[in-house]
Design brief:
This protein is of the alpha+beta class. The chain has one domain. It contains ten helices and ten strands. The strands form three sheets. Strands 1, 6, 7, 8, 9 and 10 form a six-stranded mixed β-sheet that branches. A two-stranded antiparallel ribbon has the order 2-3. Strands 4-5 form a two-stranded antiparallel sheet. Helix 1 runs parallel beside helix 8 and helix 2 packs across helix 10. The two termini are 48 Å apart.
């Protein structure tokens, strides 16, 4: 393999036990930072909502409408209704309930049914199948000229393979509803071939401007325009080895590109530093107007039903019969 076609992969140079220990340390650091960040961001968003005029009923409608958003340009009224129950039986029907429960999220989804959260044999086999099929899919879609001489030597980034042995998914809660950074998804054997992208598709991405690209795939997609990619790339204006980089295509004014998974996780867990807080504040103000307007309309309609001859009594209104958990809040 020529020097120009070599792939730099520092993580692969670590011995097997050392690589696992290194990933455990990286994820432990991430978990500690993202837990603090999630609390800070969630508290700030909830404080903004509670600082607006109105009672808790209005604030819960605002919270529900805020958390149902899927992109920064679309907003609609999504009433809270009667709260909802979690799988463990916890019932959430107040701002305090929501703040207490969701402030504990740490952005890591461990593998199930194992004491240490690592893969058991069954899931290890599934992961190996996924990685083998992913490597074939990436190679099939890659630049044939480049891979023609190197396909026998290249491998997926070692840090990514090790990551999936430790967790099935990783992400940021997106409480701000401005940036919409997608999760890094775990193993999905049903969708492997669709993850790989051609060099033409990679070059069309805004985030790859200034880079030569030969292969890559989507590691996270929120299906609303934000994606995370692993891309084999090098700077167009520099003589350097190829390397797998993480590219984030999301609602940011500048491209977010990371040479290593550790760099990406450090950035992701520092969301309080890069959130567009002015945008969040403006969004909350718009939600207050939207939800106040809908609330007033609903109250007016209810009053008309109650006050008209032969109308409904207060306990005959539809809201009086909504069962707990009848609304599941989009998270």
């Amino acid at each position: 393999m020529s020097t120009s076609a070599s792939i730099m992969d520092e993580f692969r140079q670590l011995a097997s036990p050392e690589g696992s220990e290194r990933m455990s340390y990286i994820l432990s650091e991430f978990q500690e930072r993202i837990s603090k960040t999630n609390r800070l961001v969630l508290d700030r968003v909830l404080d903004m909502i509670e600082a607006t005029d109105g009672d808790e009923s209005l604030h819960l409608d605002m919270l529900s409408s805020h958390m149902s958003r899927c992109d920064p340009t679309h907003m609609e009224y999504f009433p809270w209704k009667n709260g909802y129950a979690l799988f463990d039986g916890t019932y959430i029907n107040s701002m305090d309930d929501y703040r207490y429960w969701y402030s504990t999220q740490d952005g890591l989804w461990s593998h199930p049914n194992t004491p240490d959260g690592l893969l058991d044999r069954e899931h290890e086999k599934a992961l190996q199948q996924f990685l083998e099929r992913l490597q074939l899919a990436v190679e099939d879609n890659a630049d044939e000229t480049w891979f023609g001489d190197t396909s026998a030597f290249w491998e997926l980034p070692a840090e990514y393979c090790e990551l999936l042995r430790h967790v099935r998914a990783i992400g940021y809660e997106n409480w701000d509803k401005q940036m919409f950074v997608p999760d890094i998804n775990g193993v999905d054997l049903n969708n492997v071939e669709n993850l790989a992208l051609t060099p033409e598709e990679l070059s069309d991405l805004t985030c790859t401007d200034g880079f030569d690209v030969v292969a890559g795939w989507t590691v996270g997609d929120n299906e609303n325009g934000s994606c995370i990619f692993y891309i084999l790339s090098r700077h167009s204006d520099q003589e350097e080895p190829w390397r797998w980089r993480i590219f984030v295509e999301a609602n940011f004014p500048t491209n977010k590109i990371f040479d290593t998974l550790e760099e990406f996780l450090s950035w992701l867990s520092s969301a309080d530093d890069w959130i567009d807080w002015e945008g969040v504040e403006n969004s909350i103000a718009e939600l207050h107007i939207l939800c106040s307007s809908h609330g007033a309309q609903q109250q007016q309609a209810s009053d008309q039903l109650i006050n008209q001859p032969g109308g409904l009594g207060p306990m005959d209104s539809p809201q009086a019969y909504m069962s707990p958990g009848s609304s599941i809040l989009a998270n």
